[in-house]
Design a protein that fits this description.
Number of domains: 1
CATH topology: Spore Coat Polysaccharide Biosynthesis Protein SpsA, Chain A
CATH architecture: Alpha-Beta Complex
Helix content: 25-40%
Distance between the termini: 61 Å
Shape: globular
Order of helices and strands: EHEHEHEEHEEHEEEHHEHH
Radius of gyration: 19 Å
Length: 270
Amino acid sequence: MIDLSIITVTYNSGKQIGHLLDSIYKEKNKISLEVIVIDNNSADNSSPIARGHKIKPHFIQMETNAGYSIAVNKGFKNARGDYFLILNPDTVVQKGTLGKLLGFAKDTSPLGAVVPRLLNPDGKPQPSVSMFPTIGNAIRRDFLGCKKCFGKYLPDNRIQKVDVAVMAAFLVSRATITDVGSLDERFFLYYEDVEFCRRLKAAKLPIYYLPTAKIKHVHGASGHFVFHLKSPLLASAKLYYGEFYSEVLNLILWVGHKWQVILRGHKFRD
């Protein structure tokens, strides 16, 4: 019986995926695990690197880039483990982390998910959790001084419940996926994590931050984001919030930013 299915989605991740698989290979004899790599039609050498790795992953080649959520769900459907660990291809697992995450998940009930402390390549902690991104929380951040109310923040060094955690490293049980469903496939990229975490909260399944489990994460190595009107970030934001709510939130964030500039004593210029 397999305890842990590690699921990673590659898209032009040839420079990173080998490092991730190497780090998992070092831990493979400590727990019962499998690795599933779903390649979203990369144009680089992601596929041959993953296919030929000594860890011998279950490799799934997508014919098109169908989006992150669809690819992860493909991994869920092919997984044999009791627990699923989603990992970005630009992560590196630190010694003992897989066992810590799995052990915590097995010993904790109820549980929606458990996430590790993410580290920058230089070893410094990386902001990786957030409160739910609401209009109220945006106002609290920009006008009332609650810095962690909107956007990612770095939790203190203790086990704690959080609202939202990025899916760069995200462990969830098979039972939870059965209860609340897989990722919403309408989200091509971005906000799929927020939407899923909201469903966990609605089901009263908490997300725990486990700082003793550590994974290095290189920002942006799994995809290059360019801000433009047709960007997946904007499309996903409108899908998550709705057209009207999204416009109102953007206005509040814009006003809040200008207010912060004024408070810092800078002269505002269009």
